[in-house]
Amino acid sequence: MIYDIEYETLPREALEAIQLRRLQNTLERAYATVPFYRKKFTEVGVKPGDIKSLKDLRLLPFTTKQDLRDNYPFGMFAVPMEMVVRIHASSGTTGQPTVVGYTARDINTWATLMARSLAAGGATRGDIIHNAFGYGLFTGGLGVHYGAEKLGASVIPVSGGNTKRQITIMKDFGPTIITATPSYVLHLAEIASELGVDFRDLKFKYGIFGAEPWSENMREEIERKLHLKAVDIYGLSEVIGPGVSIECHEAQRGMHIAEDHFIPEIINPDTGEPLPYGETGELIFTSITKEAFPVLRYRTRDITAITPEPCICGRTLVRMKKVSGRTDDMLIIRGVNVFPSQIESVLMETEGVEPHYQLQVDRVDNLDKLTVMVEVGEHLFSDTVRPLQEIEKKITKNIKETIGVSAQVKLVEPKTIQRSEGKAVRVIDNRKL
Ligand SMILES: [Zn+2]
Fold first, then answer.
1. What residues pack around ion ligand 1 (CB closer than 5 A)?
2. pTM metric for this prediction
3. To the nearest whole number, what is the mean pLDDT of the chain?
4. Are 219 and 192 a contacting pair, CB within 8 Å?
């Protein structure tokens, strides 16, 4: 089912006319109300009025995650706080997370985009949606929730965790759609099988998964274990949250971007030059309908390609491929964004610790497991074990507090971690995605 039949099937020319009008409005507003944007425009000598066609978008400067951090918490808001009805923040980042705001109209836009997304993923009014995305500052849970209500489906706000209770609800309430991170749903499947629950006896038809990268192999595994059709959903809080793009269940090949709300570009991440359709590069978004938190040429750091090929579902919106990597060193662990530098700063603040460390990420029982190996001074090994245990405990606690994810900390003797002649190998990611 196509939820927003008019906007999801617009001829290219009509879509581009809408995009240009909305872009020009957004630029005028951002320039007038956000000092950061006015300064950036002035630096490159551009005024909103100079943008006369969609091609002129490339005249505008990029916006980066660092820009959002520099304006923490509300410096990028384009409306007075009286108009802001919701605030979300990126999870798991230290010091200055990125904070985003929504007006009532933004919430309605987002709910509409999520209603569209759920419908593209197979949901209809009569469905019961088991929403296992986390509720909170993270946009996943509430994003799905509002979209499900807008669509008219019944949503179960089960959130993440408490897996056994989730399985009871799945048996008793008979949900037909499940939304979660792909790694969590596989974990759920494993616990269900331990409890003797067979997914063939449950009512699931479709699953909508996202918030972390996942492969085609993982899709096959999920579909086989859960006996449902699995689609990919993409979004990031800086742009709006989930619902920026969605795979249709008919094709299951690439995610349709909501181009009537976000203009996508693919650039060469080294030169900033825009790349044509089909070429792989960094994904950039410009929001063209958001009120509280417009983003202009926002660098997502996600690597993908875009295709305008027609789709069997009838939507005319371009599709982006599954995200294949990042241009920075960010890791996504259990759906949480983690930068190795955050862990490094925790380690470096700990007395007795040497500046040699390595992070290892594994997937055990379908859940991500982070191990932090760090060298400590030789003298600590010659003493009793107590000081070592204390350091270990302290680091474990500080990492959890800083990144929001638990890590197993292993203290090792000096020169245990292999030295590199070039760039240090700080991260070993053993997850097969
Ligand atoms: Zn499609």
1. 248, 251, 311, 313, 315
2. 0.83
3. 92
4. no
